[in-house]
Every structure is written in structure tokens, then in C-alpha cells.
Amino acid sequence: MAQSTQKLETEQEAAPTSTLQRRTSSSSTLKSDALKEQGIFSRRRLFFFFGGLFGAFLGWLFTEGSPSLPDGTFLSDFDQTFANVKEAMLSESSIISSLLPQLNISDVLASATTKSWLKNRDFTVGRQALAKGQRKKHAVLLIPGIISSGLESWGTSEEHAPFFRSRIWGTAAMIKAVMTRKEAWLKAMSLDLETGLDAEGVKVRAAQGFDAAAYFVQGYWLWQKIIENLAVLGYDPLDMSLLSYDWRLAPLNLEVRDRYFSRMKMTIEHSKRIDGKKTVLVSHSMGGSIVLFFLKWVEATGPLFGNGGPNWVDEHIESIANIAGTLLGVPKTLAALLSGEMRDTVELNPAGVYILEKLFSRRERAGMFRSWAGSAALWPKGGEVIWGDSSSAPDDPVNATLTAGNVYNLRHSEEKSNLTMSDAYQFLLQQTPTTFQKMLESNFSFGIETDPERLIENNQDFRKWTNPLEIQLPHSKNLKIFCLYGVGKPTERGYWYKGEQFESDEIETDGPQAKCKGVGIECDKKNQTAIVPMSFPLSRQWMVDNEVNLEHENPKVKSGVTFSDGDGTVSVLSLGTMCVDGWKKKIYNPSGIPVLTHEIEHRPASFDMRGGSTTADHIDILGSAELNEAIINIVSGREDLVTEQIVSDIKEYVKRIKWAAEASTQTI
What we know:
With 668 residues, the chain is an alpha/beta fold. The chain is 35% helix and 11% strand.
């Protein structure tokens, strides 16, 4: 392949165990007919009782220390366990990888604990700004990422009716669905491999309103902190909106099925027409890629495009606040698509791995990931130029003994053992069905373009619009871009794989549908032989080799994962390259739109499981005081208070990127 290839909501909290025990005891005095009428296992409280026991058991399973804990140490030990595994629940591209164990623990114990990390925080940052005289000024549109876009089932078939209007992604109801009706849940969450839309008999849509992204599960806030602080300035649903989306879909299919970008355009135009206000777009994570796509879509001409003309962005958008944007992709998507794994799963102890595999196998996870065309928007972009080659990578540390340029490091391979980004693309595609390959080719592109004429042509090529290396920023004299992201947290950069046994794959050939194609050739059906799908075990199963631990190497390798700097989910190369360097080049930013980068150092508070107000974790940064202060300054018209701040080595890294001569000639 070339470089150009691509929420059953529970209504009550868990009752204390003692209450449930009393009720269970008293239930023995009930008459048998009453028992039949009520159905003991239909009680929600009994369900949560057993769920609590199961969650506590899983918490023990995932603890690597001794099962005999001294008195008074259980809560602190549990906190550490939860800290170690919470990221798998909330990592942008890997939440499914350990979905069941993690969410059970947090959901069951959420209402029974008084830990500060499960409580709402106050409106401190907003009140401080208000005291300084800051007020709302521009309209605000929030664009969430994967974790913060809840999905609802609208299917009415017999299989999916029990889920009707329930969150099958987000909230504790999702966990109940996975535990009790996993196959139906998997079917609902998977897309049709041919169309990239809903599978037959399935209808899933993005939840709407602020509730769609304020919390993920009870007590676990997402956008709630930002919404609270903006409300202090006077914002309400009349001038602040949150537009969630079905992140499983390829961007153009969001328009085809849901008219998502049309609704975004109308929301922004409404603010301008009714209130005379331009809009500030505030995106998080994958939402940054969605905003990039929108900027090109709204000005492009065609039946599926916005037809807004070349001045639309300048006239309607005040600024863009890109929070932890996945601008150049996320390497962990390559592991999720190849084997359904990532750091969060491979670092579990053997008992935890066994339980997870029985509940939600690697093969099931990978299969579901591959049906999500939207996941390809998170593929790393730029190939070896951005991500390095077999000898070095731009983000290799000083005195490196290994290079992060090798994305896949293969053991037991008859072929090349160390694969750079382009090689990794090819290798991954060889392990995936043709439907996935066609989806990639028809919706995405991952290369670099430096020809000015082709960049202009790409204004009409929607496949390029999530790749900032193949498109130009809009022509705007007034637009401002702010890149706000965290650094200083080890982040997945590459993987060490081992080949397992061979198995029969599920990749089907074209079979009887194969057609003879050729210019001026008349196909003779008598000479055609239908290809019969092979049943031999020809596909090798690959898994991350968690026995590879190279703690003394530089960069470090732990449990088969190579680490670099970032926010725990997205590498600093993806977070900062375009902001610090790429968009400083005339070829990608012809209007000279000012781009300001403000990095936030990850300094988590030890007493707070979410990291407190000084965190810069990919998800928890939404509650960071520094981040919230920056957002308030931007939307209140005090952008001058947001300063350039670089605390990572990103400026050194971008110096090592071997840009083509055309891209380096003119800078802003």
C-alpha cells in the first residue's frame, strides 16, 4: 500500500451491602408465589450486590502484591490498582481493551466511596476569572473525542429492543450489557464491513447535549469541569453547545448518515445570525481531526460538502482551541488493529490476562476495531519522515541505544523483523480483510504533500482532510489556533511482537464474485475458475511480547512496549509537530494564521486519583486548572493572556524531521 492508503442505563446507585443482606434475609419469609411474581434475579440491587463482589474479586486479581494485606492497607492498595488500570478504560484508542474489569470496579464502588477523586470539584477557575472582570464573549462549540462521545442504541429488533435508547457506550449500563448480552453488544458496536455504516438490524446514534460528554461513568467527569467554569462566565445552552458524533464512522459517512457537518455549520451560522457572535471551536483528542475535516468540508463544493465558499471560516470562526489533538495520529492504534492489544492489557498479571481473554478476547477486540472506519483517522501520518526509520527517529532521546523508528519489532518472523512506519502499514494490511483495506483506501490518506498545486487540489479530496500534512489551513486573516496539550507522561510509541501459532483466518476471497477485468478483453466464462476460500491455517496470530523488558535501554521498553514523551496516550510528535513547526511553513499555512502552543507539564497530585488540578493526562487534562484557565481566556476575548509555553523537547525533535525542500523554503 502507498502512503495515501486509510452507552442500558441503571437508574439507581448500588445499595450498601448490609442493606442488601438484610433484604436477602427477609426475602426467605416471603411466599413462593410472591417470589415467582417478583423474580429475585430481576432486582437491580441484587445485580449490583453480585456486581460488587465480582468487582472486588477483579480488583484482587489485578493486584500484583500479596493477597494477604495488612489491616488498613486495602484501600491504598486498591487505589494503586485502580490507578494502574484506569488508563485502559479511558485511553483514547484502547478503552475496549480492558473495558469490563475496569468499569466494574469504578462503577460498583463509586456510590459507596467518599474518595475525593470520584467527587465533583468546584468552580474555582471560573470564579477567579469572573473576579478579574472576565465575561463570556464568543459563542462556544465543544467537539469531544472518542471517550467523551456517548452512543445510544435505537434498534427495535427483538435482539436489540432491550437496549432501546440506552447507552451502549458510556455509563455503567454499558458494563451490564457486556456482562449479560455480550454478543448483542458486539453486534451493535460493530459496523458493516462493506458500507462502514450500521450493520443490518442495528441502529446506533451519538447521544446529544451536554450529558453526552459531561461524564463517562457515574462520578467520572470528562467535559464537566470545562462546562462548569464556562457557566460561571455566563455561558448556557443559548451560546454554548456540545456536538458529539459517532466516532466509529469515517468522517464523510458522518455527513452521509447523520448530517453531522451540516449541523455543525448551521450551529455556527445560527450564533452569527442571531447573536452576531463568531464561534470558538474547542476540540479534544480525535475531535481535533474532526475539526480539521470540517474546515475543508465547509468550504468545498459538491452535493455532500458545505459549499460555504473561501471566506466562510474567516467570517464565522473566531479561533480554535485544540486540546490534546491527535493531529498526526496515535501509534497505539496500530497495536489495537493488529492484535487488539496495547500497554494497558499487556501489563496485567497472568491471572488478569486470563480473565480478560475469557471475557473479551484479543481476536474479538481486533475484529471490532477493524469495523470502525473512524479509527483510521487516528493512524500515524507522515511515514518515516515524521516517525523515523530503522536507524533513528526525531524523538529518540540523546544517547539513544534503541530507536523508536521501529514501530513493530517482530520475533519468530520469517520476514523483516524490525518494521518502520511504512513497513508497519504494509504488515498490518496483510493481516486484515480486504474490506478493511478498501475502507482505508477510499476514506483516508497518511502521506506528506509538498507540491503547492496538489495541496490546492486536495481541497476537494475528502480523503486528505484529516491529515494536516496533505492540506492547507484555510485562508483567513482573523482565525487563531491554540494547541493545548500535556507532556511528561510515558506514552506508547512502538511494540515488540511474537508470532504465535498459525490459524485459519476470516479473510474471504472474492470467490464467485471475482470478475475478469481488462481493457478490450472479452472474458470467456468457460476459462474462469472461481477462487475457493482457503481453510488452511495460513494466518499467524501475533501478540505483544510482554516478556520484553529493556528498562536500561534508551528509550525504555516495558512489557513489550517502547515509550516516548507525550500525554500518556498521544506522542508529543503528534501533539506538537504541526503546531510548533508544520503550520509555521507557508506551504501548509498560506495565510499565516497565528498558531500558539501551550504545553502543560504532567505533575499529578498524589492524593487525587485523577491527578488533581495539575494533571496533564490525555483525559484528565480536561480538569486541569491551567487548561481551564486558557480556555476561559480564549472564549472571553483575552487570548493575550495565553502565552507560548514549551516544556518538552518538541523544538529539538522537529529540527530532526527531514522535511522536503519545498516545505522548508518559506516560513511564517
